[in-house]
Specification:
Layout (H helix, E strand, L loop, with lengths): L15 E6 L5 E6 L6 E8 L4 E2 L4 E11 L5 E8 L4 E8 L4 E9 L6 E6 L2 E7 L5 E7 L3
Antiparallel strand pairs: 1-2, 2-3, 3-4, 3-5, 5-6, 6-7, 7-8, 9-10, 10-11
Length: 141
């Protein structure tokens, strides 16, 4: 066989709960054990090579990730119960780093990423009165 591909085989305690394809179809994210405020393990797989971009990432995620329109980034919210801090983060595939773009301390509930269109990320957050408020943040150029 001239063109062998490395097949990434992963063992998980449970079946994947979500597959999130990038808009350009070059990547997909596999989530394991995702729940509303539970721990998830995620892998980003490059479809052409069928190879993971890096090590699996495990985090306490408050909402599922959303791809950027150019498939280079993921927006997601994470929660730290010990400090009652919730962050809205952007993960860059190329550098495998993340940057926080919004933080709430002592929050009543998580940010929930709703969409990423052009240079705008839309999300909701829980207000002090317990209502959901729609928010947007501009990212990029």
């Amino acid at each position: 066989m001239d063109h062998e591909k490395e097949l990434v085989v992963r063992k998980a305690d449970t079946a994947p709960s979500e597959y999130l394809w990038s808009p350009d179809g070059k990547y997909f994210l596999i989530e394991i054990n995702h729940s509303a405020q539970g721990t998830i393990t995620a892998s980003i797989i490059e479809t052409k090579a069928l190879k993971a971009l890096g090590d699996d990432a495990t985090t306490v995620a408050a909402s599922k990730p959303v791809w950027s329109p150019d498939s280079k980034y993921l927006a997601l919210s994470t929660e730290d119960d010990s400090t009652q801090t919730i962050t809205l983060d952007i993960y860059a595939l190329a550098s495998k780093t993340s940057a926080t773009i919004a933080t709430a301390t002592g929050a009543k509930g998580p940010y929930i990423v709703e969409y990423w269109k052009d240079e705008t990320i839309g999300y909701t957050e829980m207000t002090a009165s317990g209502e959901r408020a729609e928010q947007t943040v501009k990212v990029g150029g």
